[in-house]
C-alpha cells in the first residue's frame, strides 16, 4: 500500500507511532519518518494510524495501489 | 445563441473533449491530474515525465531512504483517484511551440494541447567542475536513483563523507551520516548551516547542533577542488583555506536549478527562478501579459503573494506543489469569476539531528528575530521573525504544536514582536537582527525566495508609440 | 452585548425573571441527554462571556486557535478563583473539589516547561520507549479476552445494562493492570470518583441545596483518593511491583524522578481519566448505534468501519464536553471579543465537534466521514495522554458488541444520565437482546 504524510500538518502527536510502529518512527520528540509503501499485511495498523492522526496528516492510497497499471 | 450561452457551451465542450498536457510527473503533476478529473474533466490527459518512474515522494529520500530503512523504490506516491492519463515517462520535453500549441519531446514527437500545465520542478545543481563531478563517489541528491546510489555508498561504509553545502538537504544528509555513525565533514560557504533559510541567529543554533552530534563543520569556506585516485574515485577535497579533507564519498548539496531550459524561445516569463505566473497559476509571457492556456505549479512556479508586498515567491515546498496543482487544475477548467487564488502561507519542515525544525511564512523577508517560547539550550523553542513591526515568519525546534498560532498571527499581519506567552518565556525576549546573508551565496539559497516584482526577468519588448 | 446588558438591567430592577444564557441552559441536568440545541444557540456567539465572568468558546476555529495560543494557561494556580462578576449578581464562584484537594499539578493542569517535562517522563512508561512504542498495541489480546468474557457472561440474558455490565468493567480492569492498581481496590476508588463527580457543577444548579450539600463529601472523597494514591506509591517505593506507577516511583530517567506529590496527583489523574472517559465513550457508542440502526447494520456488514467509526463517535458524543481550568494570561482578541487577562476560559469541545462551519451535516452520524479532524481528544500540547489506549479499547469493545449481540434494542431513550457536565455519559443503558453469538 502507499501512503504519504503531510509533515507540514504533522504536529508530532505520535499516535501513528503507537499504532503502527513498524511503519512510523519518531526521531527525538517530534521528527517523524515513515515507510511510504508499507507491506499490505500491515494495512489494518496503517489505517488505524491514519484514522487516529489528530491533524489528519496521513494520506492513504484510495486506489489500493493500482497506480502502476496506468504507467506506460 | 447568446454570447454567454456560447461561452458556457465552449467550457462544457472543453471539459468533455479538450486536451490537457501536464509536463512534469512528480507531486504537482500527479495532484493536478487528479484534481482535473475531480473537477469533471473527461477529455484527454497526457503526463510527461523525464524520469522512468511513476510519481514518487521526494522528502523521504534524504532521510529514511538514505538511512537504509526504506528502499528508494518504496516512495511511490499514494493516488487519490483514477487519472486515466497517457503517461509518457522517461522522455524529456525539449520545447514548447505556443503558436502551434504543441510540446516537443526528446524523441521527436509533438504533443498537441488545448491547455498546458508546466510542472517541471527543479534538479540538483551539479558540482561545477564536470571532470570532478564525474568521479566515482561524488553524488547529488534529488531523484530516486540519486538516493539509491548514495544509500549504497553510505552502507559500504565510506571512511569519511564530505557534504558540500549546509542547506536543509545537506544538513539532513549529515544527520543521517551521524545516525549511521559515519564520520562526516560539512563545508559551508556561509557563516553557518541553514543561514540562507533561517538567518544567522538560528543558523548558529543549527551549527552547535551539528557539532554536538560529531559533525566536523567548517563554515565560511568553499571547496576549491576534488581529487580522485587513479581508479577515478574521489579521495580528497581541497578547501579554500588551503587544507585538505580525505573523503571517499562527496555529496554536493548546492541547491537546485529550475527546469526551464525547454521553454527557451517560447516567449514565456521563464528564468532563473522559474516561470512567472499570476496568483491563479496562469503563466505570464515575457512582457508580463497573462496567457490563457498555460499554467504553472510546484517548484518551478513563481507567483505574487499578498502577504509579501506582492513579490513573486518561488517555493520549493511540498504543500506548495499540492495546493498549487489543485488551484491550477481548477482554473484550467473554469472561467472568471470562478478562478481561485493560490494563497498559501509558506511552510516547511526538516528532521535533522533528532530535532524537528518547522517554519511558516518567509523568514528571509525579515530583518529581526525574537525568541518567544521555550529553551534554546534544550533545542525546544519557538521564534518569530519580523519586518517593520509586523510578524512575517516563525520557526520552531521541536515546538510544532505552537506553530499554528504564529501562522494565525502572520496571516493577520500581527505585530512584531508578537504578544508574549504567559509561561515558558525565554530568558531574553529582545528582538535582534535576524542576520540573513547577502544574496549571491549559492549554498545559502533558501527554500522560499522572494524574487522581486518583475513577472519576467527579461526586459519587456517595448514598441514605438503608434503615430 | 445588548441582550446581556438588558438581562442585567432586569436583574437590577429586581425582576425575578433572569434569562439564562444558552451555556447555562446546556449545563442544566434536564438537558444532559441533549445539550446540542443549546450549543447551536451558543455558537452564534463564538466566544461568549457568561454572567460569572467565564468566557465560553464554542466554535471549532476559535477552540483550535486557543488550544495553540501560548497566552492561554491551563494552570488553575494562575487563575486562583474564577473572576465572579459580583455586581452582576451571579452565583458564587463554582467550588471545585478536585481542584481544591490536589496540592500538586497534573499534566493537564500545568503549563510548559513543567508540563512538557512531566509528560515526557510519563510517556515511555505508558506507551513504551521511543524505539519500541508497543506497550499499548501489545494489550490487544488481553483487551479482546476481557471483552469476550463480558459478552460471554451475557449469555442467557434478555436484558443487559450496557454500562454496568460492559462499558465500565473493561476500561477499569485495563487501567488497573497498566498502572499496577490492585483490582480489589476498585470499589473504593469507584465510590470516591462517583462522589467527587456528582459534587462538581458549573451551571445554574451549582447553587442548589443538593449540589451544595455534596460539596463536603466530594472534597473528602478526593482527599481520600489522593491518600490512596500516595499510599500505593509508598508501597511501590518500598517493594517494586508491576505496572507504570511502580516504574515511575523507582526509575530515574534521563530527566530524573518526579516529585512524590506530582506523581501522586498524576497517579490520581491516570486512574480517573484512564477509565472514566472510556466508559462514557463505550456507553455512548452503544447508545448512538442503537439510535441509528442503519449505521449499526453497516458496521455489522463492514466491521473494518469500526476504525473511522470510533473517530465519528468521538466527534458525535465527546466524552469530555468542555475543559474548565484554562484562563487568559494576557488580553486575547478573538472572534470580535477581547478575553481579558485573568478570565477563565471554557473550551466547549462537545459544541466545536458539532460546528457546521467545520463539519458537513454535523448532527448526522457518518461512520465513513472524511476529513474528520474532531476534538474528541483535544489538540495541542494537552492532547489526550490516553488516546491510544482509549481507541483500542473502544474499537475492540464496540466492534465485538456489534458482532456478537443479537438484535439489541434500546429500552429507554433517553437513558438516565450521570450528573457531571464535563465527563458526560449515561448512568445506565438498558438493552433488550435475543442472545449472544459466538
Task: Walk me through what this model shows.
The complex is a heterotrimer of chains A (72), B (467) and C (438). Chain A has 72 residues and is an alpha+beta fold. Chain A has one domain (3-62): Alpha-Beta Plaits, CATH 3.30.70.20. In chain A, 21% of the residues lie in helices and 19% in strands. In chain A, a hairpin with a 3-residue loop joins β2 and β3. Chain B has 3 domains: 3-123 and 257-332, FAD/NAD(P)-binding domain (3-Layer(bba) Sandwich); 126-254, FAD/NAD(P)-binding domain, CATH 3.50.50; 347-438, 2-Layer Sandwich (Enolase-like, domain 1), CATH 3.30.390. Helix content of chain B is 22%, strand content 29%. Chain B is built from 9 helices and 30 strands. In chain B, a hairpin with a 5-residue loop joins β20 (282-284) and β21 (290-296). In chain B, α2 runs parallel beside α8. Chain B is globular and about 75 Å long. The mean pLDDT of chain B is 95. Chain C has a single domain, classed as Cytochrome P450 (Cytochrome p450), CATH 1.10.630. Helices cover 46% and strands 8% of the residues of chain C. In chain C, a hairpin with a 2-residue loop joins β6 and β7 (337-339). The longest helix of chain C is centred in the middle third of the chain and has 30 residues, at 209-238. Chain C starts with a helix and ends with a strand. Residues 1-15 and 82-95 of chain C have low confidence and may be disordered. Chain A binds chain C through residues 13-15, 17-19, 21, 26, 29, 44-45, 47-48, 51-52, 54-56, and chain C through 120, 127, 130, 132-134, 136-137, 304, 307-308, 310-311, 371-373, 377, 379, 383, 387-388, 391, 395.
- Kindly provide the radius of gyration of chain A, computed on alpha-carbon positions and rounded to a whole number of angstroms: 12 Å
Beta fraction of chain B: 25-35%
CATH level-3 fold name of the largest domain in chain B: FAD/NAD(P)-binding domain
Strand content of chain A: 15-25%
Summing up helix and strand content along with how strands pair, one would put the structural category of chain A as alpha+beta
CATH-defined topology of chain A: Alpha-Beta Plaits
CATH architecture title of chain A: 2-Layer Sandwich
Helix content of chain B: 10-25%
Measured between the Cα atoms of the first and last residue of chain B, the distance is 39 Å
Q: Strand count, sense and closure of the main sheet of chain B?
A: 6 strands, mixed
